Amino acid sequence: MDDVKYVAHMFEEMRGELKAVHELVAEVPNMARKLDDIGRDVTELKQDMTVVKASVRSLAAQVHDHELRIGGLETA
């Protein structure tokens, strides 16, 4: 009789574990969609950073030019 109780207990344990695995597997499509969304966001952020870097370089060049011109006026 103890063997039957043990097998029944193990069956219930396995049943619970299989239910948990099934729930995780059911979430895989949602996870894939979320990863796709994150991938698109990262791509967009990379493109935005390219624009930001170019703008910073341009502004830095302008500031450097202004520094040179101001320095020239101060020494004149």
Could you characterize what this model shows?
The longest helix is centred in the middle third of the chain and has 74 residues, at 2-75. It is built from one helix and no strands. The N and C termini lie far apart (106 Å). It is rod-shaped, with a radius of gyration of 32 Å. It is mainly α and 76 residues long.
For the secondary structure, the number of strands is 0
Instruction: Summarize model confidence as the mean pLDDT.
Output: 95
Number of helices: 1
- End-to-end Cα distance: 106 Å
Q: What global shape is seen?
A: rod-shaped
SSE succession? H
What low-confidence regions span 5 or more consecutive residues with pLDDT below 50? none
Share of residues in strands: under 5%
Question: Which sheet architecture does the biggest sheet show?
Answer: none
Structural class: mainly alpha
- Helix percent reads over 70%
C-alpha-based Rg, rounded: 32 Å
